[in-house]
Amino acid sequence: MMFRRFLQRCRERLRHADRALLTLLAIRFALGVLYSVAVPLWEAPDEWGHYAVVHYIAQEKRLPTPGQSLGVEFDESQQPPLYYILGALAVSVVDARDWTPPAVNPYARTGTGIGGLNMAIHTPEEAFPYRGWVLSAHLARLVSVLLATLTVWLTYRIAAFVSDGCRWLALTAAAIVAFWPQLLFIGSVITNDVLVVSCAAWVLLALVKVMDSWPPRAVRVLELALALGAAMLSKLTALGLVALFPLVILALGIKAIRKREFAVRFWASTGAAILVGLGAGAWWYIRNLAALGSPVQRYQHVLKSLGLIWTDPADLAIRLKPVDVWGALRYGFLTFTASFGWGNVPAAWWVYAVLAALLVLGSIGAVAWLVRRAEPKVRHVGWLALTIACVMAPPVYLLLYKGTELLRGRTILAILPPLAIFVAAGIGHWLPSAWKQRLPPIAGGALGIVALAVPLLYIAPVYAPPPLIPLERLADLPNPVYVRFGEQMELLGYEYGNQGRYAPGDVLEIRVYWRALVKMERNYTLRWQILDADRQAHATSELYPGWGNYATSLWEPGQVFRDTYRIRIPDDMPSPGMGIAALTVVDAESDTPLAATDPQGQFLGLQFRLRPFKMVAGMTIHATQSGAEYVLGEKIALVARQAQVNSATHTVSLRLTWQALARMDKDYVAFIHVVDASGHTVWQVDRQPRDGAYPTSLWDVGEIVEDEVVISVPGDAASRTYRLHLGVYDPDTQERLLTFDPFGRRLKDDIIVLALP
Fold first, then answer.
1. Full-model pTM
2. All residues at 6 or more sequence positions from 52 whose CB lies less than 8 Å from its CB, including other chains
3. Which of 58, 97, 146, 152 gets the most CB atoms within 10 Å of its CB?
4. Lowest-confidence segment of 352-366, 411-425, 703-717 by average pLDDT
5. Are 522 and 486 in contact (CB under 8 A)?
6. Three-state DSSP class for residue 613
7. Confidence category of residue 661, pLDDT binned at 50, 70, 90
8. What does the pLDDT read at residue 627?
9. Residues 6 or more apart from 142 whose CB is under 8 A from it?
10. CA 132 → CA 95, 105, 146, distances in Å?
């Protein structure tokens, strides 16, 4: 009977529910599933470490003991257990005993992106339809999708409650949370970060309900205590939320004193709620304390340092390390909005621009809304702000304690629900009353487009294997060589990019055609080297084929595919002259090269050298960051640069090679600054290409434009360090075009920094 009544109440609530909200939740759930499929397994921070705990609990039917290690990299067994218990309940229906930690791409951790961005080697068994441990892992991901969708509903409830049912505000805030790219990503992989976000939203909802009336109902106080207990069991960074509880008790106590009524009943019910709710969250810490002598195994030193706040705050202030505030904020913004993979897969600049505009306009509008006390009237604004502060406190303290610039945005994602309410109210403040009702579909539609574009355009392509080549096209292979490495693989042909003409600082592009001869059990390493005419190596790059996504253990016999390798030519490469790309296939386990043989079976050595490419003269300026093909605003590419020094006149003749990537309706201006070691500009020029004789509005898409400028350098240039700062800006707005290096990383201040000889 009770179950029937429960179902009846659920049907009644669904009948009266906001259909727009139900539609939003359905779309959010579908998008979460899309992200969980687009992101390959293990391509999220520490994901297989999180799954190992879920797998252990599902198989062993118990939690890891305090101090126990599961023997996997990125072991998360000493994290609070609630997320893993929920995941284990979901995956326990699947037989996943055959799971083992994934094979790792060892070249993805170089930080340059040359070796690929995939941390794991992805096998065909991960493909749909899912079975065994793959199905188990996707079920665990589905738990994250459900938790993130629950957060959207909680955000709607919070916004509706504090605004007395303001529908447009509640729907807009829920849409912001629903389509926030970083939450879509984190809410689609196996990580306890998503549970922190859900628990924080639950805590906030329970908190505003407690503070909304007097005397607070005991069941609401109990709900708040249970929400805080759940937060305590989600992740250590959620402990900042516990600071809300004494503040709530203090506020209620002040009310009780002022009212002078219900004091006994109030404190009795409140005390019972505290014991029940916080006790539900404290048992895990008490368990650790009894077994290890510390309530936590991780961050014990950080926990001890917090005691200095009360005993010796001066000493604590000395121990805290200075940080680059701008760097921390910049990294925090990027990873809070749209940072995927292991933090190494960014979105396009326009995604960050849209989200930044939303936050800036919403924040400014929110300040104006609060100052003017305009509509909608929102209660408990202080508690919304306090929740944001409590969520931010642990990550910021760790930032100061460690002295790192990495304020990881996923650790502060729990501020998103209250932040979305402020942003929604702030944007609504700019709109007339009639347009406020249209804000939910407009904001939701725009953010929904961004959310849909991210997995399709920026996540899935990163992990795509190289294209297969039909056998009938083998007759058209460029530079056919048919060189075999051992009996494992065959290099059919190759070609250079840029017509085989390069200079120091350029990125050498080599397109290679491979054929697998046998099924390989091992993952062989490709070692590329750039040699000069004397066979001296100037650069070495090691990686797995397919930019890390197509390791040799995945190759099928007889399969032909095209692979592309990009290697930066170092600045010390002699020019003019010739360069040689040399390839060695190495068994990494034994560091043994495979023998290279020609089609007749003759031994060519342990290294195969491709035909020479031309090193052009006069390239003495080199880039300080890897790569040479800089992209500016997706409109212009800087594909080459040359410099010739005239010591007699103290000048440098700088030749820049531009390429038009799109039609331009403006005449953009390039700036070139000579900057000394202290950052002072000693010479500069701002000019249109060819001194205005060929403005960018006349360029055709794909057109190559040569441009030359003579730079005056100080007479002491030979004994001092100078650099060139180069960029392009819009002359109407004075805004620089967003500038990215060959790996898609945005350059600081949108400036290309070049060394001056």
1. 0.77
2. 70, 72, 75, 76, 77, 101
3. 152
4. 703-717
5. no
6. strand
7. confident
8. 38
9. 33, 36, 90
10. 6, 23, 21
- What one-letter code names the amino acid at 450? V
Torsion of CA 142, 144, 147, 151, to 10 degrees: -120
Rg of the chain (C-alpha set): 30
d(CA 310, CA 567): 55
CB 708 within 8 A of CB 309: no
Does the structure show a pLDDT above 80 at 692?
no
C-alpha to C-alpha distance for 303 and 394, rounded to whole angstroms? 11
Residue with tokens 């609504």: 428
Q: Could you tell me how many residues make up the chain?
A: 757
Query: Is the bond leading into 129 cis (omega within 30 degrees of zero)?
Result: yes
Which position has the token pair 């929904």? 448
H-helix or E-strand containing 223? helix 218-232
Task: Give the 3-state DSSP-derived string for 569-595, with helices as H, strands as E and coil as C.
Answer: CCCCCCCCEEEEEEEEEEECCCCEECC
Per DSSP bridges, beta strands 525-531 and 537-543 are antiparallel
Structural contact between residues 641 and 656, judged by C-beta atoms closer than 8 angstroms: yes
Is the distance from CB of 208 to CB of 162 less than 8 angstroms? yes
Q: With beta carbons less than 8 A apart as the criterion, state whether 417 and 172 touch.
A: no
751 alpha carbon, distance to own chain's centre: 23
3 state SS of 117: coil
* Burial class of residue 129, CB neighbours in 10 A (0-12, 13-18, 19+): exposed
**Distance (Å, whole) CA 210 – CA 364:** 30
Starting at the edge strand found earlier in the chain, the sheet holding 681-687 runs: 622-623, 752-756, 722-729, 669-676, 681-687
Question: 356-378: per-residue pLDDT in tens?
Answer: 999 999 999 999 988 888 888 88
Q: Which residues does 748 contact at the CB level (< 8 Å), separation at least 6?
A: none
Indicate the SS3 state at residue 418.
helix
Read off the tokens for 106: 């060892």
Cα angle 470-474-475, degrees, rounded to a multiple of 5 = 135
How many Å apart are CA 173 and CA 155, to the nearest integer? 7
Residue 27 vs residues 34, 337, 414, 535, 656: alpha-carbon distances, Å? 10, 20, 21, 59, 48
- State how far the Cα of 98 lies from the Cα of 84, in Å rounded to an integer: 19
Q: How far is Cα 77 from Cα 573, in angstroms, rounded to an integer?
A: 49
d(Cα 534, Cα 536) in Å, to the nearest integer? 5
Longest dimension (CA), the chain: 100
3-state helix, strand, coil in the chain (%, to 5): 45, 20, 35
List, in order, residues 6 or more apart from 546 with CB less than 8 Å away. 116, 465, 466, 561, 563
Backbone phi, psi, residue 149, to 5°:
-65, -40
- The predicted pLDDT at position 312 comes to 57
Q: Is residue 664 within 8 Å of residue 705, measured between CB atoms?
A: no
Which two three-digit tokens encode residue 280?
């539900």
User: At 726, phi and psi to the nearest 5?
Assistant: -130, 140
Tokens 């893993």 map to which residue? Answer: 84
Cβ of 519: how many Cβ atoms within 10 Å?
12
Cβ count near 341 (within 10 Å): 20
CA distances (Å), origin 507, targets 7, 623, 744: 64, 11, 14
Q: Which residue has tokens 């700088």?
A: 654
Distance (Å, whole) CA 7 – CA 383? 34
Per-residue pLDDT tens over the stretch 163-175: 998 999 999 999 9
The amino acid present at 459, given as its one-letter code, is I
Q: What's the distance, Cα to Cα, between the start and end of the chain in Å?
A: 86
Q: Which residue has the tokens 């360090």?
A: 721
Look up tokens 């001056």; give the residue. 756
Element (H or E) spanning 671, and its range? strand 669-676
Rounded to an integer, what is the distance from CA 194 to the centroid of its chain? 15
Predicted confidence at residue 3, as pLDDT, reads 54
User: How many other CB atoms sit within 10 Å of the CB of residue 410?
Assistant: 23
